[in-house]
Description:
By secondary structure, the chain is of the alpha+beta class.
Amino acid sequence: MDKFQYYYYSLFTFLVLGGHVALVSAALNLETIPFTKGFSPLFGETNIIPSANDQSVQLHLNQYTGSGFKSSDLYNHGFFSAKIKLPSDYTAGIVVAFYTTNGDIFRKTHDELDFEFLGNIKGKAWRFQTNMYGNGSTSRGREERYYLWFDPSKEFHRYTILWTNQNIIFYIDDVPIREIVRNDAMGADFPSKPMGLYATIWDASDWATSGGKYRANYKYAPFVAEFTDLVLHGCTTDPLEEVVAASCTERDSQLVRADFANITPRQKSAMQRFRSKYMYYSYCYDTLRYHVPLPECVVDPMVRQRFKNTGRPKFDKHQHRRFKKRGQVLGDRNYGNQEDV
C-alpha cells in the first residue's frame, strides 16, 4: 500500500467511524486460535500451507486444484473472524470465500453466511459479495455486491461474520457493512442450525468476472490467499442433537448482549456511508428477480433511485448455473450477468 492509498484508507476509516479507530481484535478482546488446533483440510491438502508458528495459513490455487479448510467443530451461533490478504496481479475468475455453512450435513436444507471475494483483470479492483441462506433457501439468495475502499492484496484486513439468534452482522475491520435482523416473516430462511467456518480458493471462471467473460489465467499461478489471526468464538455443539444444551443457551444470550452484536449509532452511520458509496447491487432492489421485496428488506427511495429500474446497474440477461462450491453441489442459484469489471 503506497502513501496515498494508506492515507485514503486511514481517512476513510477515521471518517466512517466518526473519528474513532480501533482494531477489532483489540476492541473485542477475543483470542485467536492456532490453525492446526481449530481447523482441518477441506480439499487440496497439498495446497494448504500453515506457517511455522501455526498462526497463519496460505491457500493456493494452481492449474490442478484449489484448496480449502474448515473448522474442526460446528457452532450454535458465534463470532467468526480472520485477517485475510488476497492474491494480487491478474485474478480474473478467482473466488476466495470465507463463510459459515452446514452443507456437509444438511445437503438439502443447509444454512450459509458468505463473504465471497471476486477477482479481476490486471489493473482492476477486487470486488466482493455477502450472502445468506437458511434451510436450503437457495432460490431466495440474498446477495449484495460491493467495492472496497482499499486494495485487499496489499496487506491484511479483518473480515468478520457475527451470527446470533437475533441478527447477523458482516464486518470489515471495524466497519459493519451489513446487518440482517431476524423477523417472523423470514421463517426458516434465517440460519438456525449449527454451522462451521470454512475458507476456500477456487476457479469460478464460468461466472465470477463479468459473467464468465474473463477467465482464470494460470500463467499467474499459484494464486495465494493468506489467513491469519483466526477467531472461533461460540458454543461448540453436535448438529444432530435435537435439544440445544443449556450451556449453549447461556452462551447465546451472552453473544446477543455483547458489544459487537449491537451496532452503535456511530457504527450505523458508518455502515450507511459504506453502503451508499460502495454497494453496487442488492437483492432488495432487484425487481427482475423479486417483484415483491423479501420480508426483511427496507426499501430506501434514495437507494432505489440510484439502482434505477431493475436494481442491476448493468443487467444483461438471466443465466442459470449449478452452484458448485469446493467440489460439492449444494444447490441452484440465479445470477444476472452483471458487467462489473
